[in-house]
Every structure is written in C-alpha cells, then in structure tokens.
Amino acid sequence: MDRDTGRIRRASFEAFATRQDNKSSIKSGDSKVLPKHLYTQTSNKIDTSICKLSEYQIHKMISDRGHFRKKRKYKKADEVLQQLNANNVFIDDKVKQWGIGINWRSGTRVKYTTQVKDCKSIKEAVELTHSCLKTGLTTRNLSSFWSVVPQLLQHHEAANVDDDDFELPNQLESLLTQTLEDIESFSYKDLAQTVLGLAKIIKHVGSSDNTVIPEDSPHQLLHTLLIGDDSKSKQFIFRHIACASLHILPEFDPRHMSNFIYAFSLADYVPDFDDGSTLFDVLAVEVIPNLIQYNSQDFANTLWAYSTAKENNSTLFQEAGNIISQSNLDEYKPQELASILWGYATANEPHPLLFNRVGDYISSLNNLNEYKPQELTSLVWSYSTAKEQHPLLFEKVADHIVTSNNMNQYTPQAISNICWAYGASGDSHSNLYKTIADYISSNDNLDEFSPHALSNIVRANAIQMKQMYIFADEWHPTLLPQVADYIIGLDNLNAYVGQDVSNILWSYATAKEKNSALFQKMAEHIISLDNLDDYSAQSLKDIVWAFATAGESHPSLFEKIADAAFSRQDEFTSQGIVNFLWAFASHGQLDRILFLSFVPTVKSMLAGFNRQELANIAWIYAVANVSVPSLFNDDFIAAILKKEEDEFTLEALVQLHQWQLWQIEIKSGIRLPESLREKCYEAFLLRVPEPSRFQTDVVTSLSSIGLDSEQEVLLKSGYRVDAVGEAHGNKVAVEIDGPHHFIGRSKERNGSTILKHRQVAALDGMQVVSIPYFHWRRLKKSCKKQQYLRTVLSLNCYKAP
C-alpha cells in the first residue's frame, strides 16, 4: 500500500481547523451570527418544503429552549418545542441533536450502539461507523465508537491492514475530524466517554515495549493519528476537547467528572491556558464544592489523576481526605483505598487523619484475603513514602504475606517495594524478611530482579539485621552470598545507578558480610565511569563509609570520590559530611587537600552538630594531622561545652582525648576544660588490653635476642603499647600489629593505628617499631624471627621528632 498518512493527517486537521473558523462565522440570511447551543444538526440541509423556519430562527429557538430549561421555566421551554415540532423540527435530548422530519430518529442510535459493540475487529468498527456518517452519526454514536476501540486493540493490535483496506486510515481520520468538529455539541456524558476512550487508546498504542508492531497495523495507524510526532497530534486533540468542555463543566456529575479528569492524566497531557492556569486548576474549582457527592471510585480516579499528572492542589486533597476519613470505609474496595493513599503519597500531600483512619480500618479486618498483592504493596509503600507510621497495619500486612505462602504472585518490583517500605518505616518483621529471602534464594536466576529491586531487598535485610544485632550468617546464610555471586558474574554494572551501588555496598558493610570480590567489582565499575555526576552526595558518602567499615582497601576509588566531592560539599547533610570524612580518616586515606577543602563547610555546620558528630570531627582532623586554627578554636570549645559532659559517650570521650593530645602535639594552646579533660583521660584508660598469641610469640622472640621487655605499658599520654624495651640506649615501643590494624587484607595501616604510632612518638618520646602480622606469619623458624627483630629494631624505627 502506498499512502502518505502524515500528509493525510495534516490535511485532515487543516480542513478541521478551517471548518472551525468557518463555523464560528456562519451567518443567516439576515447577517446574524447563529446562536450557540449544545445541539447539532443531523443533516446539512433544511427541507424548505416541510419547514418554514430559517436556519437562524431554528438555532434561536433551540437556544431559547435551553435557556428556559436551565432557568427551570419548563412551561415556556415546552411552548418553544411545540413551535419547533409544528414546523417539522424535532429534538433528541438524549444525544443533543436536532433534525428535519420525524423520520430522522428512526432508531439509528440504538441500532448503531448495539452493532458497534458486536464488532470483532477495529476494521469492522471503523467501517460500520464511517458508513453512518452520511446518514447522520449522533454524538452518542461517536462516543460509543471511541469506547469500543481500546477493547478491540487488545486483541487485534498487531494485525496488518490488508491491501484492500487502503481506506482505513482515511476513515479513521474522518471519524476523528467529525468528532472534533462536533465536540462542542457533546453532552458531558458523551464528552467524558469520548475523551476516556481516546486516552485509553493513546495509553495502549503509546506504550513502549519490545513488541514489534507492523507499520500498517491499526495500532500503528492510531499511534500516528492520535499521538503523532513529538505528541503534537495528541496535544492538539486534547487541548481542543479541553476548551470545548469549559462551558458545560457545571453540568458534569461526579462519575463523569472523575472519568474526565482521569482521562487527561492517563493520556499524560494537561493543557495550560494563557493566564498560567491549567485545565486541572479549572476542574478543581468545579470539583471541590461537589466532593460530598463523590463515591469511592470517583475519589480514587480524581486523586490518582492529580498525583499522576503532578498537578498540585492542596485544597482538593485536604477536602477530599476530610470527607473520606468520615466515610464508611466498608464501601471502599481495596483497590480504591490503595489508589487513594498512593495519590496522597505520590503528590506529597500530608493527611495524617486519613492515613490513620485507613490504617485502623484495615488493621481491624478479620483477614486481608480480598487484598491483591499489588494493593498490599501499594499500601505499605504509600505509608512509608508519606512518612506515616502505623505499626498495626504493617504487622497485619506482613503476617498476611507470611501466612499466605504465595510469594510467587508478587512481582520482583513488588517485593522490592515491600522491602523498601518496611526498611524505611522502621517496622521490624523478621518472618517477612525471611520469607522473602527464602523465596529469592529459591530462584536460580535473578535476572528478573532489576538492580534497584536487588538493592532495596539487600538493604532492607541489612536494616533488619542491624535492628536485631545479628550478622548475615546468623540471619540468612544464602541470601547475600547469592546476590553477590549474581552481581559478580555480570559482564558489567552499567545498569546499576549510583543509588543501587551505594545501597548494596552499604548493606554488605552493615550486615558484616565479607565479600571482597563484590567490593572490588563495584569499585572498578565506579572508577571506569567518566564522572560521578549521577551519584548523589549521600551515595558518595555511603560508598566510602561501606569500604571503610568493611575494611576493603581501594585507594583509587577514594581518590575518585574525593575529586567528585570537592565541588558538592553543599549537598551533604551534617551527619553525611561527618561520615564521609570519617571514612577517609579511618581508612587511612589522608588527603590533606580534601580535609582542608571541607573546613568552611564543617565550620558552617558546627552549631548543628550533635555531641558524637563534634567528637568525630575532632578525631578525624587529629588523624589527618591537618592543623586548622580557624576551626579548632574557642568557638569549637564553646560548641562542645554546650553539651552536658555526661551526655558524651565513652567513644566520644576517647576521641576528644586523642584530639586534645593532638592539640598538645601541634602546640596550638587550645585546651578542654580540666574537668572534661579528666573525663576523657579516664575513658581512654578504660580499654582493657587483651594480649594475643601473636603478641606472646613476639615478646618471647624479643627475649631470645636479649631484649627484655615489659608488656602492656601505660604511657604518660594514656596510650598502652604492646611492649617496651631498650635498644641502643633508647626506649623503644614495640607495636605488635594484627589484622585489625590494617585495611582489610592490604598492608595499609588504618587511621587509628596511624594516629597512635604518631602520637606515641611525638608525645611520649619513644621510637615506635611496628611488627605487622603479614611479615611475622611468614617466619616459621625461631632463627628467622630473631633475625627479623634484629633488623627492624636497628633500621625501621618510627623516630620521635
């Protein structure tokens, strides 16, 4: 078939626009503009042999009759109707049409409606409807046609247009043009039905999936006709319908108004007007006063539409929520309740009364058997998104999911949303998580789970473990290893966005699930990226925190993230910036430029830091050994003193003691008050030494080379060193450094070890010799150990300045 559908469509719309212009300027024989009304003529000709009225007189009388009916002057309206009938002009109020002669209402409307519903294909429906154009299609006929097409599309969307169907595109365009030309005469019912049908068609043919649609299929023809290039056709059609509806909006009942609103949202287009308002702003004016008349489905459609279209109207949501909260919720279907709450959560419109009322209602039910998986998922997602707490509801839903034993009915996205909702709300339900973990572990292939779904699932399980103070091997021995193996086995991680990567790494670190291969795979992926613009400040923080907490070394990763963070400091929260810098310091990644660059941001947040954050900041810069008098001065001391001394944890007091040692080390002259210094010192001494077999072996070997040493020596600074001996006339602090002094399996010392070695050398005046475990364990014979100790004691001392 050789057809230029684009040319035909443009010509069709141009012809329509021209007819609209002409229509507005039609004049009668006496040069008067035809009066406006809602009725359309079934034929373009007036048979003067049976009708003595002029065209203008007919339109004037129909307009007057409508005016009388609106004013409830029914007697005068009937008198006008009698005059029209006497001149063989007859009116059909149901379809808002008028015609000459009584025979024009011969049952065509009823016959057509029955026939179009029986059509088995789009071609059949189009041909039937198009054939009626000459005899006169009513507005009801047209609305029926557009309502039937979406149903037929589902079954015949991929069918090709046969060679003898070359008229189908033209016929479709003619029907659309006729609809738009007559739209101003549509009743509100036909208007709502028509626009809803068009929206459903557009939703269907506009959906993007992997299905290959033939070019000449009804699906593609409708896409070209109703959507067009860059959605221009769709916008033209829906804008025209919107404008045509304005003068009859007061006539809409709740059901058709809600369907009308729903249609525009479904089509993903809400026209705006010259004054800056949108169609939904105008509709809200009509809707809000009549909300008391809305039923459950009306509310669901309307609220869903406004939230989906991102049309904010707080008054509408508040008034609707107030009415629903006082309604009998037994009259609401599960899908309607889920849709309503989803609307509030998505639109970010708070209504605690509504959420509490619905939560209480659902919690009181004997069971949730009438609630489908999608509805349960939507409910808990809505509560968490809206930050509305309702523990009884979450417990009810979790118990139902666990006891129903039907996890296979939940889509991967639904499982992800459930995990996210429970994790975000803080509602712990171990049996639910284990049920989900068992289901996922039973899947041999995790390809059906999106990266976002996997990240939500592992994060929720990590939160649950954290709340229960247990580790991954105690919780579920196969879930995290299975997910890690799946990710490691992927060719690349291009589908994983920043939040997915950070959530997964955070989860494994929080759950204490060691998996160096997973961390290395994700680190290499991050490094391979051109930039980290798609990674939020929180994601950057979570990634370095995870590596530091899990003890996974990757200096190149820290360098790349540091570069990304320089220009984005204002995106960090106070807690986020502390955790970010802590990760670098504790990981021994002491980038002086990084720590200096963050000083202004830290200073600006100083007043908002809590006591632990203040202590962390103090410790971080002590480890980094970056002197910043502009930060650590009397203002910093004042910020600390605003907190009660008794409020500081043992960890915070220890950190402040090391910071105070640092101030002495750099001779800053800054001192904590004496009482707080004593508390910090006492807290620092509370750490009980636990000598290891490794330590005992080293000390024994020291004795064998004639170096008598004292173990666990308390120094003036408050530090305890593993052993103190004398070499070459000088006291030497021997630090026997096991695995916890290093970053994972690397040979890089962590921040705590770097700080201790430096401060003991600087403040206690001792040479510090470190005996790393990875050196010692290679020495199997006593003679080798002795030779090693003689070497390090002579050559590799950390000398006091």
Strand content: under 5%
Biggest sheet record = 4 strands, mixed
Content-based structural category = mainly alpha
Strand numbers in spatial order across the main sheet: 4-5-6-7
Number of strands: 7
Description:
With 801 residues, this protein is mainly alpha-helical. Helix content is 59%, strand content 5%. It contains 38 helices and seven strands. The protein has a four-stranded mixed β-sheet with strand order 4-5-6-7, sandwiched between helices. A three-stranded mixed β-sheet has the order 1-3-2. β6, α36 (751-763) and β7 form a beta-alpha-beta unit. The longest helix is centred in the first third of the chain and has 20 residues, at 5-24. It is elongated and about 135 Å long. Residues 1-12, 18-31, 106-110 and 795-801 have low confidence and may be disordered.
Topology:
Elements: H1 5-24, E1 40-41, H2 55-70, H3 74-86, E2 89-92, E3 97-100, H4 108-117, H5 122-131, H6 139-156, H7 168-182, H8 188-206, H9 218-226, H10 232-245, H11 254-266, H12 279-287, H13 296-308, H14 314-325, H15 334-347, H16 352-364, H17 373-385, H18 391-404, H19 412-425, H20 430-441, H21 451-468, H22 472-475, H23 479-488, H24 498-510, H25 516-528, H26 537-550, H27 555-565, H28 574-586, H29 592-597, H30 599-605, H31 611-624, H32 634-641, H33 650-665, H34 674-685, H35 693-704, E4 710-714, E5 720-727, E6 730-737, H36 751-763, E7 767-772, H37 773-776, H38 782-795
Parallel strand pairs: 1-3, 6-7
Antiparallel strand pairs: 2-3, 4-5, 5-6
Helix pairs in contact: 1-7, 2-3, 4-5, 4-6, 5-6, 5-7, 6-8, 8-9, 8-10, 8-11, 11-13, 13-15, 14-16, 15-17, 16-18, 17-19, 19-21, 21-24, 24-26, 26-28, 28-31, 31-33, 33-34, 33-36, 35-38
